Amino acid sequence: MKFKSIICATLAMAFAFSSAVAAPQNDEEDIRIVKINDSNFEKEIMHSDRPTILEISSTSCPPCLIMIPTLIGIAKNYKDIKVASVGIDEPNVEKIKNTLPIQAFPTFFFIKDGKIISRRMGALKEAELLRELQYTPKPAEKTAKKTVKKAQQKRNLSCEVNGQFGGLQNHVTISFVFGAEEIENVDIVTDVIVPPELTDRRQMLMEKFMESGKGDVTQTMLGFRLHTGNDSHFMKAMDMKRTSTYGEMKAGLELQGFTCK
After folding, report:
1. Boundaries of CATH 3.40.30.10 in the chain?
2. What pTM was estimated for this model as a whole?
3. CATH superfamily of 27-144
4. Which residues pair with 177 in a beta bridge?
5. Is the pLDDT of residue 54 over 50?
6. Over 80: is that where the pLDDT of 248 sits?
7. 188 forms bridges with which residues in the sheet?
């Protein structure tokens, strides 16, 4: 089935591609998410020896950003599940785009024994992902998840990436405040550059973002800015899992092409 590009009215990040799982420096950064492209799709997905959750992400979709903690948690806590990601805006994914029925971002495919058993679009909670995969956690796994995490010092993290939205260049910045036990604040700012030849369409693009309710939209000298704040209706509706650590979020975002500081 031909890939049909439908622009999400939110902005996020691009995935870099390779056939290997992230190579962390310590356990906290071991996010265990497999990066997928045309070269390793058959081996890692269709011939996987484990049930697999495959996420299709776009640089124009913050729900993809919001899903990072949930995907990290599944990859770390359920070793018999494979979690994999495709960045649809990256090179070497043409076969995937022309094969999988993708209509929005993020899209999740649930695969067992080389067969797609389910497909869902949009941000999902962990329980929903496991249910679509027809997976029931073992009692030992449920117990292990109750382990008390070591309290961490309050820290800030800011990550940024250059991307594109519907052919328009953008710059995405996501900032976090990590408290002792959870992420206290998330702030996403996307600056979209509208070239001079498309200036007459800027107002129309801004109005579409405003109608989507994904955040506050303001005009800038080069285009417009979309701001999704921690207390925005959109962020609350997405219900981002906030138990990931500083190290996990930093590793997850850097894996997907962000530069963090």
Report:
1. 27-144
2. 0.77
3. Glutaredoxin (3.40.30.10)
4. 156, 185
5. yes
6. yes
7. 174, 228
